[in-house]
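Entry: Glucosylceramidase
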Amino acid sequence: SSRPCLTKEKSALPSGRCSGLSGLPHAVPPCAGARPCSPKYFGHDAMVCVCNATYCDTLDPVVLPAPGTYVKYESSKAGKRLERSEGSFQSSLHAPELLLTLNISTLYQHVKGFGGSLSDAAALNILGLSQPAQDNLLRSYFSESGIEYNLIRLPMACSDFSVRPYSYDDIPHDYELKHFRLAEEDVKMKIPLLHRASAMSRRLLSLYASPWTSPAWMKSNGDIRGKGTLKGQAGDKYHKTWANYFIKFLDEYAKHNLTFWAMTAQNEPLAALLAPPQFPTIVFTAAQQRDFIIRDLGPALARSPHRTQLMILDDQRLHLLRWAKAVLGNATAARYVAGVGVHWYLDGLVPASCSLEATHKLFPDHFLLYTEACSGFLTTRFSVSLGCWERGNHYSHSILTVLNHFVAGWTDWNLALDLEGGPNWVKNYVDSPIIVDSSKNVFYKQPMFYHLGHFSKFIPEGSQRVGLHISHRYLSCQLEHVAILRPDRALVLVVLNRFGWDVPFGIRDPAVGFIRTVAPANSIQTYLWRQQ
């Protein structure tokens, strides 16, 4: 984690060559090809791309290059944003100091995908823009002219990123859930946005839901806010009602034509260890979550008409191995569970090898998915740091590390926040890849957005990580990387250089040949080619 980026604003003229020409939503772009970033600087090197109702930078749909050639997409602190170029493989290469060799006969985990979370705060910020600007924002994330997210996480009722604490059934002792109702936040905001995102997407969107808190009357502290457990114990009326609350949520969304790929059993069951005292949460130990799944939630999901998968943990990887052993070590619980959700916030405390990889080795049939990450948490001054390249680096470093340790995908936290990093009713402000300034009807696409795009756009669901051999003359490799085989048999190599100097290197695909190339200082690159 480097020093906070500067936040002094300095304006630059937009370089948008189609500026002001495309006010109509879904209009054919008035000039062919991808539209460039319209840059704005907030201090030296801190650049965002500005979008409004009439202009937003775009990408072309991904087209596989001709055999024997490759395409490269590059973003850099110096100002490139997913800039596309082409090149050809060579039949031989003067031995570079660093050579990355792909081995597609060594196959690792399948990829589920990449995405972000449609919190109440994200929905409010998106809907705070004019309709054409909203469309530009949604297209940036979900369409072929954007970075093509396929995962969306949705809080069940309120999270801290809401403007108020609420649940779907605030009538005390309603064990039949007769008064269960979706909130205005769902019906007026999130559901319409999900339909719009889905209509823009060429890919199938996978939704998954996470509860922060139950109704107050089910909690030991009698309050949606703050630290409390579910009343009683697994198998009793509180736990049965809470399990049925999950099913009711799925039922109500199904009435709006929305189905969920998965749910997590509880957002951050150990959040009370870290979070502000007002934070909406239910505390579960691993044993309590195991028993709730065995006696209540597992059977309720299995009996329901929904084919929704279940994830456990949804918390820091510090707890991962112990949690997985406690829950998945029980054969009955393991049958009800498909995967394990992980949050990134305490990753620095425990290496990936002895948490992610160790868990994968013990439970290879259960997927690992990163379900939440954001920058700017627990900072006193810079919740939002506009244009901060280092925060983009932090995202890519995390994604590369976890993909190389058997994780199936990565989900960012809020899709969009305001300039303060909210709204958030416990003032737990953080950063986001898109920051909305609704007073000016603009939004800013931050370096984090483009870093994520280097993965999400090029690595579709069903891809698989493949072997990558590194040979170099020095003891340490300065680049971070991952190699992926797509379902269409094309290959993707993502390379991150977090250092302040250029690193020359070579790429070798034994089936095609060699690429001689350079990873510029502070850059991320995605290479894409097809096999012969």
